[in-house]
Records
---
Amino acid sequence: MKKLLVLLMGIALVLAIAACGSKDTKSAGSTTTPAASAAAGGQQVVLKATNFKFDQTEYRVKKGEPVTISLENAEGMHGASIKEFKINLDNSKKTATFTPDKAGSFPINCSIMCGTGHANMKTTLIVE
C-alpha cells in the first residue's frame, strides 16, 4: 500500500513539474496584439503566458462591447480564469467571447497548477 502511494505521489510530482516545463511549439514565431484593440467583431485580448506570469499586468476593455479573449502559452502549460465572467481557458479551449456587463477590475488567475510560482500568476482585466 505504501509503495503504491509513493508511486502515485511521484507521478503527480512529475506531472506538476512537467506542466510548466513543456514548450508549446504551436506558438513559436507568432506575434500578439497589445492588450485590447478594435477589430472586426469587437475587442481582442491576447493573454500571453510564460512561466509564472502573464505578459501584461492589466488588460483594458470597454463595458458593453464584445470581447474575444485568447490564451497563448509561450512557455509552459497554463490556463486563465476570470470567475466574474465565467471564463476558463486552457489548451483545449483557447478562446472565448463575452460581453462585459459591469465596469471594474477583475482578477485573471492561472487555472492550471503550473509549479512553484503558480499562486503568484495573476493579472487584471479592467472594464471601463
Note: Residues 60 and 126 are 5 Å apart (CA to CA).
---
Amino acid sequence: MGRSTSGDSGGAVLDPSGRALGTLSTLGLAAPIVNDIGDLAHELDYARAHSGITGLRLVLGTESFRPTP
C-alpha cells in the first residue's frame, strides 16, 4: 500500500483488479504512523445491523477500473 495521510481515512482500498476490500484507517497512536484496512464484509455487517437502512448492499461501480502505476 502507498503512503497515506490522516485525511485519507475512510477511503476505499481496492485489490489489483479493482474489487473493494475495505476502508483505509491511518492510526497515529504509534511511531511510525501505521496504515490499517478495515474488513469490508465486517463493515457492511455492522452497518446493516446499526444503520436502519433496509437492503444495504455493495453494488458494482459505473466506471471501468484503471489502475495507476
Note: The CA atoms of residues 44 and 50 lie 10 Å apart.
